[in-house]
Design a protein that fits this description.
Rhinovirus 14, subunit 4, elongated, 116 residues, alpha+beta, three-stranded mixed sheet, 2 helices, 16% strand
């Protein structure tokens, strides 16, 4: 091996997770910080944990709430409209004569014979 071209190797790398778990390993870095580890990852623990990157979960939850409010508002307006229409007198229905459906026409294929 050549001298002075390899990075320094640390036997006591300290990996610190956001949950507080500390893991000791070896690496070319002295210290490392992470958001998830085997102690808090949902795959290993069986518990669901939302990892929010750049507020994506909050944005999604806001969209869901807004959609629910709009649906409730639509349902309320539909109920009000229904109660208004039942309280008013119904106008007499107009009878109209139905027209017979038009016949379907198909284009016939014509073949032209070439003269020699």
């Amino acid at each position: 091996m050549k001298e002075k071209i390899h990075p320094q190797y640390f036997q006591d790398l300290k990996i610190t997770c956001a949950c507080g778990n500390v893991i000791i390993a070896g690496s070319t870095k002295k210290e490392l910080k992470t958001e998830l580890c085997s102690a808090c990852h949902p795959f290993y623990t069986g518990k669901q944990k939302l990892v929010d990157t750049a507020g994506r979960v909050d944005k999604f939850m806001a969209k869901v709430k807004k959609t629910q409010e709009l649906n409730e508002k639509k349902m309320k307006m539909a109920e009000e409209k229904k109660t208004e229409s039942t309280s008013e007198e119904k106008p007499a229905k107009k009878t109209t004569a139905k027209k017979a459906p038009a016949k379907k026409t198909t284009a016939k294929k014509t073949t032209a014979k070439k003269k020699k």
